[in-house]
Amino acid sequence: MTLWSEIMSQPAALAASMAELHDPVAETAAWMKGAGITHAVLAARGTSDNAARYAQYVWGARNRLNVSLTTPSLFSVYGRPPDLAGALVVGISQSGESPDLLAVLAEAKRQGRPTLAITNSSSSPMARLADRALNLGVGEEAAVAATKSYTGQLLCIALLSAAMAQDLEQVKGELDEIPSVTEAVLASEKEIGVNAVDFVGHDRCVVIGRGFHHATAHEWALKIAELSYLVAQPFSSADFRHGPMALVERGLGVLAVATQSPLFPELSELLAEISAAGSHVVAISDAADCPANQVIRVPAVAEWLSPIPAIVAAQVFTYHLTVARGQNPDRPRALRKVTRTV
Amino acid sequence: MTLWSEIMSQPAALAASMAELHDPVAETAAWMKGAGITHAVLAARGTSDNAARYAQYVWGARNRLNVSLTTPSLFSVYGRPPDLAGALVVGISQSGESPDLLAVLAEAKRQGRPTLAITNSSSSPMARLADRALNLGVGEEAAVAATKSYTGQLLCIALLSAAMAQDLEQVKGELDEIPSVTEAVLASEKEIGVNAVDFVGHDRCVVIGRGFHHATAHEWALKIAELSYLVAQPFSSADFRHGPMALVERGLGVLAVATQSPLFPELSELLAEISAAGSHVVAISDAADCPANQVIRVPAVAEWLSPIPAIVAAQVFTYHLTVARGQNPDRPRALRKVTRTV
């Protein structure tokens, strides 16, 4: 029950993380201010790369910071790194150990660029290498599939955004309700489980989300691949229209993340089209009028923080789907907790 | 036979494009030099976004230019664009018409940043909006699924790299052989067709490539989704180890792009593991020792240009797979040639 207990521990883990990160993010934001930064380059893999996708939207929309996800092989295997002039270079990694990501940070230091590590261990190689390190403080993660480290990364990115914008006082209420909202999602785990069991017959699926939920779609798809062994491909709703829309037919399982936002009308229209074409649509939503065959309800929160409760609902869905498919969520095949790629 | 004739026209189209782009890329590179650029921000969707992935590696490895793929919704739907200080902003689009991409270029101009359009129509809205435009010159593309516009985009990105590096004389031989190498790939279309027919029983597959072929993996997967209606998920081999490796089992179809490169040892090792676990591996390769169940042979070319012949082989494979699955490659369902997303 390791994975399940870590999923259920998230309200407490996030509350602890929020307290632990309060001062370090303020100090990090102050340090960034004087560091001559025009944009940010992020290095991450797997789940942490999905947290990096979240940073693209949060830091972009709230802090006007242009964020790019880098290509580690140019640094590690090719030895042909780009010029990082103007960049803050950020590594995001639960373990802080993957050699390809360490190569990106080492090169950034060689170029004299400011470096930041976001890891779940203050003694990790990445935390020791970077100029500054933020420690998630969600406690040791034992399950192979990342859950609380992902929500901890999202929270850390959100807190750093508030510190950069110096609007922590204004958004404090929105942040403070995250642990209780997450708790409310977990309280509905039995209903979510029913939706998951209904989905068990699908063996091909896509996961759709856009904007802040581009990250949620990618992370939900990754959890499904790791745990349920379904090929679940994530798409932004805009990219989906540029080609993959052809996949839609009876029998395709479509998972969507559609909370209220300026993107909701566009996403709604797409889901209605998909559903009309006979695909089975399950959506995570806080909207009364979400056009899906089944809706997993989550509480409404400020849009920029909505990826936290949404992914918790997706984790619960995936856990139940995995069990319903007869797989063991605590022993995903072929994986280890710490993956080291070159 | 529209799609097939466009696939077969690529040697001639690429030769024409090379002649047409020679002077414009030199002028564009000269203009970039004086434009105060520290990094590049690319806006694209669908196939063009895969060309943008190629630019990340080519411009990164050969020109030390840090390239990021942007998030159009921040510009179009949210109206919260990031600060583009230091950026060259590049739109890549066959039609040059999608409103979300036009929103990125319009904002870049508002911020006084240099803008470049790479389109297949010099009278497109994107070409007219940008400070400078490069026209692919591959001729009108009528098929819904992009083929010659993609190889044209790759060639344009490669030529601009040579112009930026001012090493056109040194790499002229490598570039000049591209049309004939592409011709050689097309001459083996019957053998590739046999590989495709053998693959027809798979309904779940992944596509693996890394480095310069990260783009090839994404574009092959997109062609398969659009035309064959298979969920085919693309991965870098490094990201594949960080979770999706759990998908590997008997019955999973694995497509890989594994031409000779500094990444070949790592990718080889992964493919051997996947094959040993019982998944069926088909690889596009120029290497004698590629550990796959079936190898689609392509001629060896300079690594930075290898995505051009490799994707042509993948297009032929996908065309035959589509026909073998009883689908019409000229009428992919639910798609139009020009997709306009907000």
Please explain how this structure is put together.
Two copies of one chain form a homodimer. Chain A starts with a helix and ends in an 18-residue tail after the last helix. Chain A has a five-stranded parallel beta sheet, with helices on both faces. In chain A, strands 7-6-8-9-10 form a five-stranded parallel beta sheet, sandwiched between helices. Chain A has 342 residues and is of the alpha/beta class. Chain A is globular and about 55 Å long. Chain A has 14 helices and ten strands. The first copy, chain A, has helices at 2-8, 10-33, 46-63, 72-76, 99-110, 125-129, 148-165, 168-176, 178-187, 189-198, 214-228, 237-241, 264-276, 307-324; strands spanning 39-43, 66-69, 87-93, 115-119, 132-135, 204-208, 231-235, 253-257, 280-285, 294-297. The relative contact order of chain A is 0.15. In chain A, helix 2 packs antiparallel against helix 9 and helix 10 packs across helix 14 (307-324). In chain A, strand 1 (39-43), helix 3 (46-63) and strand 2 form a beta-alpha-beta unit. Chains A and B meet through helix 3, strand 2, helix 4, strand 6 and helix 11 of A and helix 3, strand 2, helix 4, strand 6 and helix 11 of B.
